[in-house]
Write a structure and sequence with these properties.
single chain; about 130 residues; mainly alpha; 4 helices; elongated
Amino acid sequence: MENSSDKNGKLGDLLIDGQFVYMGVVTLVNVKVLTSTHSYTFFSFFFSIGSVFTYLLFFWVLNLFVENDLFALFSKVFFHSSFYFALLFCSICLVMVDIGINMAHLEISSMIEKRDKLMERKIKIMRS
Protein backbone atom coordinates (compact mmCIF):
# COMPACT_ATOMS: atom_id res chain seq x y z
CA MET A 1 0.00 0.00 0.00
CA GLU A 2 3.07 2.26 -0.06
CA ASN A 3 2.27 3.71 -3.48
CA SER A 4 -1.13 5.10 -2.42
CA SER A 5 -0.74 8.83 -1.99
CA ASP A 6 -3.00 11.54 -0.63
CA LYS A 7 -3.58 15.12 -1.83
CA ASN A 8 -0.29 16.28 -0.33
CA GLY A 9 1.73 13.59 -2.09
CA LYS A 10 2.51 11.73 1.12
CA LEU A 11 3.16 8.05 0.42
CA GLY A 12 1.72 5.36 2.64
CA ASP A 13 0.13 5.79 6.02
CA LEU A 14 0.06 3.69 9.15
CA LEU A 15 -3.75 3.73 9.23
CA ILE A 16 -3.98 2.56 5.62
CA ASP A 17 -1.52 -0.26 6.23
CA GLY A 18 -3.28 -1.14 9.49
CA GLN A 19 -6.66 -1.39 7.80
CA PHE A 20 -5.12 -3.49 5.05
CA VAL A 21 -3.65 -5.91 7.59
CA TYR A 22 -6.84 -5.98 9.67
CA MET A 23 -8.99 -6.75 6.61
CA GLY A 24 -6.51 -9.47 5.69
CA VAL A 25 -6.79 -10.99 9.15
CA VAL A 26 -10.60 -10.86 9.07
CA THR A 27 -10.72 -12.47 5.63
CA LEU A 28 -8.09 -15.13 6.30
CA VAL A 29 -9.58 -16.14 9.64
CA ASN A 30 -12.99 -16.59 8.04
CA VAL A 31 -11.47 -18.61 5.17
CA LYS A 32 -9.63 -20.78 7.72
CA VAL A 33 -12.77 -21.31 9.78
CA LEU A 34 -14.71 -22.20 6.64
CA THR A 35 -12.11 -24.71 5.42
CA SER A 36 -11.59 -26.24 8.87
CA THR A 37 -15.25 -26.94 9.58
CA HIS A 38 -15.47 -29.51 6.75
CA SER A 39 -19.22 -28.85 6.59
CA TYR A 40 -20.13 -26.54 3.78
CA THR A 41 -23.68 -25.52 4.52
CA PHE A 42 -25.60 -22.35 3.79
CA PHE A 43 -25.10 -21.13 7.34
CA SER A 44 -21.33 -21.67 7.34
CA PHE A 45 -21.00 -19.62 4.14
CA PHE A 46 -23.50 -17.04 5.41
CA PHE A 47 -21.69 -16.43 8.70
CA SER A 48 -18.21 -16.38 7.14
CA ILE A 49 -19.16 -14.01 4.35
CA GLY A 50 -21.43 -12.06 6.69
CA SER A 51 -18.54 -11.49 9.09
CA VAL A 52 -16.40 -9.98 6.32
CA PHE A 53 -19.25 -7.81 5.05
CA THR A 54 -20.05 -6.65 8.58
CA TYR A 55 -16.47 -5.48 8.95
CA LEU A 56 -16.72 -3.68 5.60
CA LEU A 57 -20.02 -2.06 6.58
CA PHE A 58 -18.73 -0.75 9.92
CA PHE A 59 -15.51 0.49 8.34
CA TRP A 60 -17.50 2.29 5.64
CA VAL A 61 -19.81 3.88 8.25
CA LEU A 62 -16.85 5.05 10.35
CA ASN A 63 -15.28 6.35 7.16
CA LEU A 64 -18.14 8.83 6.72
CA PHE A 65 -17.55 10.81 9.94
CA VAL A 66 -15.16 13.74 9.55
CA GLU A 67 -14.06 13.65 13.20
CA ASN A 68 -12.97 10.03 12.94
CA ASP A 69 -9.38 9.00 12.22
CA LEU A 70 -10.67 6.65 9.52
CA PHE A 71 -12.27 9.49 7.53
CA ALA A 72 -11.82 8.95 3.75
CA LEU A 73 -9.68 5.82 4.20
CA PHE A 74 -12.22 3.43 2.70
CA SER A 75 -11.56 4.55 -0.86
CA LYS A 76 -7.78 4.51 -0.35
CA VAL A 77 -7.78 0.97 0.99
CA PHE A 78 -10.55 -0.83 -0.86
CA PHE A 79 -10.21 0.74 -4.30
CA HIS A 80 -6.55 -0.19 -4.54
CA SER A 81 -5.89 -3.19 -6.79
CA SER A 82 -2.90 -4.53 -4.85
CA PHE A 83 -5.16 -5.02 -1.84
CA TYR A 84 -7.31 -7.56 -3.68
CA PHE A 85 -4.33 -9.32 -5.26
CA ALA A 86 -2.69 -9.69 -1.85
CA LEU A 87 -5.90 -11.02 -0.26
CA LEU A 88 -6.43 -13.48 -3.10
CA PHE A 89 -2.82 -14.66 -2.93
CA CYS A 90 -2.87 -15.09 0.85
CA SER A 91 -6.24 -16.87 0.77
CA ILE A 92 -5.10 -19.31 -1.91
CA CYS A 93 -1.86 -19.98 -0.03
CA LEU A 94 -3.75 -20.55 3.22
CA VAL A 95 -6.12 -23.04 1.58
CA MET A 96 -3.24 -24.87 -0.12
CA VAL A 97 -1.23 -25.12 3.11
CA ASP A 98 -4.34 -26.25 5.03
CA ILE A 99 -5.09 -28.96 2.46
CA GLY A 100 -1.43 -30.05 2.49
CA ILE A 101 -1.38 -30.33 6.28
CA ASN A 102 -4.62 -32.34 6.26
CA MET A 103 -3.23 -34.70 3.60
CA ALA A 104 0.02 -35.14 5.56
CA HIS A 105 -2.00 -35.88 8.70
CA LEU A 106 -4.04 -38.52 6.87
CA GLU A 107 -0.90 -40.09 5.44
CA ILE A 108 0.83 -40.22 8.82
CA SER A 109 -2.30 -41.69 10.44
CA SER A 110 -2.44 -44.34 7.73
CA MET A 111 1.23 -45.23 8.23
CA ILE A 112 0.77 -45.51 12.00
CA GLU A 113 -2.29 -47.72 11.53
CA LYS A 114 -0.40 -50.02 9.15
CA ARG A 115 2.54 -50.19 11.56
CA ASP A 116 0.24 -51.08 14.46
CA LYS A 117 -1.44 -53.84 12.44
CA LEU A 118 1.95 -55.22 11.44
CA MET A 119 3.09 -55.20 15.07
CA GLU A 120 -0.10 -57.01 16.12
CA ARG A 121 0.55 -59.71 13.50
CA LYS A 122 4.14 -60.12 14.67
CA ILE A 123 2.98 -60.44 18.28
CA LYS A 124 0.40 -63.08 17.27
CA ILE A 125 3.02 -65.03 15.34
CA MET A 126 5.47 -64.89 18.26
CA ARG A 127 2.80 -66.10 20.73
CA SER A 128 1.78 -69.06 18.60
